[in-house]
């Protein structure tokens, strides 16, 4: 559930998109550009049930990642998927069935891309979001987000805006979102955010660029100046979109 946003003001004036192997790469900030140039590690985020992520698109992203980074992890969200469907009105059985179908499909496409691009399994890896639940750094970051949900007004306001934006696109005319829908959306957001904050701590890499075809919904917050919830110094983000017409 990633919703598009606008680039932080400092980034829009300082950066230009980079053309690489059929993709347009736009770092979020000048510091994100440094992380991108270092080329230590990239996370390529993939959303289940999103038609944008065809098998060919994922293969192309995998090859692009390997060409520009020492290590690449393709991460797909497999947590709170059934709960999201249930909150949107599907029965528990239907919600689980739809979630399982979407996850089977995206998992198969990612595994195929990994096997094709890096058959030795040395630099390219497929990971489910649930894999991180046993990771100490991820757990610490997630616990901090739970605390901030109660204590950090800035973080709480950004989350509320994201939830409202997402639910407004799903709600039927005249039907207000339910408290259950709000809570499930918050759970989903908080599950994703640790990888936006400090993937290097989670995966033990020097620096990491989080890559998606839309801007991180929390970019304004995570890459702002001053105190508050901020991405770590070796964490970056870039918008990576395909160039129409093939490889450049």
Structure commentary:
The protein has 248 residues and is of the alpha/beta class. The protein has one domain (9-242): Cyclodipeptide synthase (Rossmann fold). It has nine helices and seven strands. It has helices at 9-14, 30-38, 55-68, 81-87, 92-117, 136-151, 153-170, 179-203, 219-222; strands spanning 18-20, 23-27, 41-46, 71-76, 124-128, 208-212, 235-242. It has a seven-stranded mixed sheet with strand order 1-2-7-6-3-4-5. Helix 9 links the parallel strand 6 (208-212) and strand 7 (235-242). Helix 3 packs across helix 5 (92-117), helix 4 packs antiparallel against helix 8 (179-203) and helix 6 (136-151) crosses helix 7 (153-170). The longest helix is centred in the middle third of the chain and has 26 residues, at 92-117. It is globular. This is Cyclodipeptide synthase. Belongs to the CDPS family. Pfam families: CDPS.
Number of strands: 7
Question: Helix amount, in percent?
Answer: 40-55%
| Strand content bin | 15-25%
Order of helices and strands: HEEHEHEHHEHHHEHE
Class by alpha and beta content: alpha/beta
CATH homology superfamily: Cyclodipeptide synthase
Largest sheet: 7 strands, mixed
Question: Could you give the order of strands across the largest sheet?
Answer: 1-2-7-6-3-4-5
Family: Belongs to the CDPS family.
GO molecular function: aminoacyltransferase activity
InterPro entries: CDPS (IPR030903), CDPS_sf (IPR038622)
Protein name: Cyclodipeptide synthase
